[in-house]
Amino acid sequence: MEILEFSLFVLFPAALAIFALGASYRLFRYVFLYRKGVYIHRDSSFAFKIKSLVLSFLRPTSFNLRTKPMEFVFGFMLMHAIGLIPLIFLLAQHIAYIEAIIPFYGLLWPLAIPISPITGALTVTSPVGVKQVETLWGPLTIVLNGDFLAIFAILGATYKSFAKIYERFKGHKNVRIGDLLIWPLLLAVLITGWLAAHHTPSGDIVWYRTMLGLHIAFAALFVAVWPFTKFFHFLWGYWYGKLHEWYDMAIKRGV
Amino acid sequence: MPVSIPNLDSVTLHYFENCMGCAACAPSCPYYYVDKHYAPVEKAEFLREILRKKYTISGRLAGRLVGAKLPKSEEDFKKLMVFAYRCANCGRCYTTCPYGIDSGAMVNRLRQVLSSAGYAPTLLRQLSAMEKEGGYVAAARKIWEDFLNTAQAPVEKKSARVLLMVSLGDILISRQAVLDAVTVLKSVGEDFTLPGRPLGVFPPVGYTLGDLEAARAVVAEIVKYVESLSPQIVVILNGCYTYSYFRFEATNILRRKFGFKLLHISELLAEYLKSGRLKLKKLGIKVVLQDSCQLARRGGVVEEPRRVLEACADVLDVKHSGRDVECLGGGAGIGILSRQISDELVKALGATVASSDWERQFLEKLERDYEKATAKRIKILKDVDADVVVALCPFALEALKRGGVEAEHFVSFVAKALW
Ligand code: SF4
Ligand code: SF4
């Protein structure tokens, strides 16, 4: 079996199963460890509660921009906001693939992002023929396309990798062993994806299928380790953390 | 020595496992400007190492390789002491963290581990023991009687509307402010009472060193005493952790709600002002308000002190105020360990400050770091063209005065504006 088929039909389903088990384990721990507290909440208006909810999410971003602009540009903007998030969830090829597993994901088609700024073709090699990505983004696809987003994300991830190595070298404890493993994995997913999309290093179909196979294999590894690494923050830690902080600070203390 | 490791609940689990190590929190901490290794995440990481060893399979199997380890040697514990006592639990890193990780709470849990192994500043340990066993009451009898004689106010009056919760610490470092609070209560004709004895030293001191059992006992004892007097409102003068602890933690610790309402003095004065009971004259003084982290950020008391001050002074703006206030670094017991305050405690209670050469050096270094941590905020406050900085937290007030700032306690300032 060639690597593309192996990745698509063996690795990825296995990764999804590991992901489902791991994610359930992590989420259930929160349920089982929940302890109800006895508190006297400070009264506050509905408008205050909504405003503070929004601010809980916004405040760290503006603080980061003011205090660590490099981190903000590379770590938050390039890597997250205009890098990985749209790339993973909205790239047309990804929507097509995820839709095959989770049908309602196809609702995101209007937001799909084409793979390159030059063509909106979704696929030219598939037996279904050429399909065009029709999106709402219009001229924005000059920037909002797989090529650019991947470059942004690669720049962000490279910056973060070097920053982590530098911090580790300086003896800072916030760099953990997991960082030194997951950043290369993320870069491997991004770079193989970019190479496959560009039919590089060779236009030959075997090379293309190999590179795409590697991309999916690395993505499968990413999905499998997702619940056991800091990658899980996107699905859980971030949302739980901010909502808990909002409850603790705004609802309970009225701050 | 065996250590007791905190149990995991869902919130501690979140603080433990969802920190990304991004260090976005670092610039929020006053101690980060003393040494980059005092960033909130790095201090909390020492606890994570301990938790990993106990609660993760990888930590148990691979130990240090995956950043999991328990402190074992005396050197290990001493190193942890340094990091654990570079946090004022001000909560700023909590709100600047993109993931809502409360590193201050983690550092407090680190202190719990240390305390369980017998590592805590001697002074805090002694004060906590005195508070728990009540020894401070007899030791400070003369000081208390002297205070009552000066205050000339009702004492231990049952069912008064307001009980002014005065601690020994309040009398030792903010005596004039307590007397001024009494003056204000008299001037508005409040039905109030003082307690028959000081309520704690800086209650609960046990919280500062991570001795939860002592903290619980002190809270239970004070609440029992207060309930025996049946006031409707208990008013706290101390704008540091005593307020936030009694207002937001005590009910959870005792697992029940109380029969009284808890207010900070600034909240009560704001109520008087609103109802027209408190009449203040304009003093023609430009002031800047140094909010208290525990009152504003961890307590939600932001507008009340402002409203009261605005009625009697020109309140100037200063950056990073209200809920975003920059900490002066003296919370969570660090202020108690500072020289000015510890000297007072030694004089009043005969307490010992340090029990070894190592501890003496530890405290001297802490004092220097505390001063450096204070410097950034003091510069910002000095740059505002104010006549006086008004503070709500007794430790902040001491730090400001030490830094050469003209500073005054909120209550004392307001008392000067009484008609
Ligand atoms: S505590 Fe929050 S801001 Fe600090 S390193 Fe961890 S995730 Fe980042
Ligand atoms: S709670 Fe305050 S003092 Fe403690 S680590 Fe966070 S910012 Fe620093």
TrEMBL record, chain A:
Q: Does the keyword Transmembrane apply?
A: yes
* Positions of transmembrane segments: 6-25, 72-92, 104-124, 136-159, 180-200, 206-228
- Which protein is depicted? Nitrate reductase gamma subunit
Q: Tell me which species this is from.
A: Pyrobaculum oguniense (strain DSM 13380 / JCM 10595 / TE7)
UniProt entry keywords in alphabetical sequence: Membrane, Transmembrane, Transmembrane helix
InterPro entries xrefs: NarG-like_sf
From TrEMBL, chain B:
Presence of keyword Cytoplasm: no
Q: Name one GO molecular function term.
A: oxidoreductase activity
Q: Which UniProt keywords apply?
A: 4Fe-4S, Electron transport, Iron, Iron-sulfur, Metal-binding, Transport
Protein name stated in the entry: Fe-S oxidoreductase
Is this entry keyworded Iron? yes
Q: Where is the 4Fe-4S ferredoxin-type domain?
A: 9-39, 78-109
Top-level division of the source organism's lineage = Archaea
Which InterPro entries has this protein been placed in? 4Fe4S_Fe-S-bd, 4Fe4S_Fe_S_CS, Helical_ferredxn
Looking up Pfam families in the UniProt record yields: Fer4_8
